[in-house]
Structures are given as C-alpha cells and as structure tokens.
C-alpha cells in the first residue's frame, strides 16, 4: 500500500523551526530520508517553499474559480512537505510517520494513496490513466 505522509505545522512550530540551524534540519531530515531509502519504502518526497514564495490559492466557490494569494492570514496549520512511501500495512506507515524528525506543534497526516484497483477498470478515463502511467514509467527507464 502507498501512503502519503503530509507534514503540517502550526505558526508556533514554524517559528520554532526557524530557530534551529538549517544545517541541523538538513542533517536530521537527510538521515530520516536515508533510513526510508535503505528500508526500500520511499517512493517520493518534497518539501514546500514558504507561503510568501509564489504560493497561491484557487477558490472554486465562484465561477470562474478565483486565484488569490491565499487565505493565509488566519492559518492554524500549514502543509509544508510530504513523502510517499510504499509499505505492507497501515501500522508500518505509522511506524515511519512516528520517526519523522519534527518538534512540538508539528503533525504528520497519513493518508492512503489511491491505486488503480480502487476505480472501475472499464471506465474510459481510468483506462487512459493506466496508459499514461505506463508511458511515464517507460520514459523513466
């Protein structure tokens, strides 16, 4: 099963994070990522830039959807990065989520990533998606 581990942090956690030397953060995250790779469970992962670095929100409450700089004035938690891992069980995903080197005020939301088997195989768009994925896999080789 694939799971996405989503890093979220409160404003206070983000402020505390900025007090830690960046080299220390790189080392902690690097060690964690290395552990995921050595265990053979890491499929992808990325950190996200600060919200003041080209972030925006598309709000679908109106037609056409409205693009704004975002409702960031009232943030309680921000999404700051993710990993996608492939493990055998939900418990194994929880094991890896507990090991993420984060401090108080940070959370990891873990969600199962849908797979092609979650959808009807005879749907036109699901068939196209399967073809696109196969093309991408072939390009990556």
From TrEMBL:
Top-rank taxon, per record: Bacteria
Xref: InterPro entries: Dimeric_a/b-barrel, YCII
A Pfam family the protein falls into: YCII
Limits of the YCII-related domain: 1-116
Protein family according to the UniProt entry: Belongs to the YciI family.
PANTHER family in UniProt: BLL7163 PROTEIN, BLL7171 PROTEIN-RELATED
Designated name of the protein: YciI family protein
């Amino acid at each position: 099963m694939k799971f996405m581990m989503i890093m979220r942090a409160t404003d206070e956690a983000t402020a505390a994070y900025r007090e830690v030397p960046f080299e220390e953060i790189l080392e902690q995250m690097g060690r964690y990522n290395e552990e995921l790779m050595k265990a053979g469970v890491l499929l992808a992962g990325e950190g996200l830039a600060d919200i003041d670095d080209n972030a925006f929100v598309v709000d679908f409450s109106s037609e056409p959807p409205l693009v704004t700089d975002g409702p960031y004035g009232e943030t309680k938690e921000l999404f700051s990065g993710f990993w996608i891992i492939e493990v055998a069980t939900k418990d194994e995903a929880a094991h890896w989520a507990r090991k993420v080197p984060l401090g108080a005020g940070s959370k990891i939301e873990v969600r199962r990533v849908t797979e092609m088997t979650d959808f009807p195989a005879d749907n036109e768009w699901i068939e196209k998606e399967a073809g696109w994925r196969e093309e991408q896999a072939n390009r990556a080789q």
